[in-house]
Structures are given as structure tokens and as C-alpha cells.
Amino acid sequence: MIPLHIKKAAIKKAAIKKAAIKTTTKTLSQYEKILNYMEKDKEYGIQEFCELLQLKESRTREILKGLLDYENKIEAVGLKKNRKYRLLE
Fold this sequence. Notes:
Layout: H1 4-21, H2 25-37, E1 43-44, H3 46-53, H4 57-71, E2 74-77, E3 84-87
Antiparallel strand pairs: 1-3, 2-3
């Protein structure tokens, strides 16, 4: 029997690998649009990205999560509704 914590770690690794592989060209273009829009040392809220991409908040959050987790190009500052995003480069 496999311990639960090992099983969860394996599932998480598989999910990350799957997400990295399934990045579509449309998502990549949205990443580029966000990165080109952002300026160094400036923080942005979710609504600014919603207007930029013309998407709803939920999908915009998923795209930003991809940039945070898989691309490591931006960082999140704050929690929940007060969360802002800042360019790392």
C-alpha cells in the first residue's frame, strides 16, 4: 500500500507536467500580451488584465497562475481580493 502523502505528491507532479505540456498557442500569446503590457516596478490588479485580454476574471486568474507557477515570470503580492501582480524580470 502506498502512503497517502506519496500518492498526493505523485498526482501533483503529474498535474504540473500535464499543464506544462498542454499550454496552447493561444495561451502562450496571452502570456506574451501580459508580459509586454507589464512594466518593471509597477503592480497590476486582476481587472487590468481582464480588460487587456477581454476575458472573465476566472480565466484571467488561470492564465496568471500559469505565469506564476510554470513560467516564473511574475510574482503575486497580497492575498485574495487585494492581490497584485508584479513583473520579475
